[in-house]
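Researcher: Please predict.
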Amino acid sequence: MEKVTFEQMLQAGVHFGHLKRKWNPHMAPYIFTEKKGIHIIDLHKTGVKLDEAASAMKQIAKSGKKILFVATKKQAKSIVAERVAAIGMPYVTERWSGGMLTNFATIRKAVRKMSQIDKMEQDGTLNTLSKRERLQVSRQRAKLEKNLGSISDLTRIPAAIFIVDVMKEHIALAEAKKLGIPVFAMVDTNSDPRPVDFPIPSNDDAGRSIAL
């Protein structure tokens, strides 16, 4: 992974935070200034935190373990799905199902159900069902694929989780903390960085910032 430069972050708008009135005081160490009522993030500090996070994630990936990426907000979904699928890591971009981490066994059961339906389709069992039953099974398969297809290869609890927008993904964050799973996250000026092990102070709303 190439080192992200200050200039690249500036061009991508990584430094744009939220309105001052929406700020979280715990983000104060990462705020450079305020401009027209909007907080500006200190990109030098972002660079340091980004390097720390990248180094730690690299070690996890090198050990063959999985990092689960979570980004269900509209402007992040397609970017994260495309980039993360390319590196063979699991991701959630549709909806975070409560218990996805804390009730992992149930989630695995649902993924196995998806595999069973695929097997039924391959061995012809599906054709022995009535038209109505086939339609029900097909709809169930589509729903499972939409919500869990991108984590079907996740056979055990991930070694870490990467979140885009900790406020939106607060359930995922809470589950990871409960299980002691290291959390990496893009943290904007309206968020609390304290529960995050590797916070990256950044604009978590702009597509270009997320992509970078």
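Model: The longest strand covers residues 31-35.
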